[in-house]
Amino acid sequence: MNSFRKTNFLIACVSMGSHDATGKGIPALQIRKAAQWWAENRSAAPDAVRTDIGSALGLLAAHPGIGARYEGAKVKDIRRLLVRRIGYFLYYRVTPGTLEVLAVWHVSRRKQPSL
C-alpha cells in the first residue's frame, strides 16, 4: 500500500484483494504506468498525470464527499472523481481517517472496474 499524508487524511492506494508483483496496490501501479505513458507521449504536458492526480488527491482529502457515488460497485460507499484534463477517474472510498484509492481508470475503457 502506497500512502502519504495530506491534511488530516491518510491517502492510500489500495486494491480490493489484488496486488502487483511488488506487493504494492494496483492503483499505484496504474498511476505509474499512466504517468510513464503520458511523459513519453504528451510532450506539451509530460507531468500532467502526476500533477493532476496529486491535485485531485489533495481536493479529495479536503472534500472527500465531492466525488459522485459509483452505483456499479459491489462494495458500499464507493465514489469516483473525474480528473478531466487527463481523462481518468479515481475510484475511492472514505473510511475513518483514510481515503482509499481503489482504481485509476481511463474514460476510454468500455468496462468499469470491478469493485
Overview of the molecule:
Strand 5 (88-95) and strand 6 form a beta hairpin. This protein is α+β, with helices and mostly antiparallel strands and 115 residues long. The longest helix has 16 residues, at 26-41. It is globular and about 40 Å long. 27% of the residues lie in helices and 30% in strands. It has one domain: RelE-like (YaeB-like fold, 2-Layer Sandwich).
Task: Give descriptors for this structure.
115 residues; alpha+beta; YaeB-like fold; six-stranded mixed beta sheet; 6 strands; 27% helix; disordered N terminus
Brief write-up:
By secondary structure, the chain is an alpha+beta fold.
Please write out the topology:
Elements: E1 2-6, E2 9-13, H1 26-41, H2 48-62, E3 68-69, E4 79-83, E5 88-95, E6 98-106
Parallel strand pairs: 2-6
Antiparallel strand pairs: 1-2, 3-4, 4-5, 5-6
Helix pairs in contact: 1-2
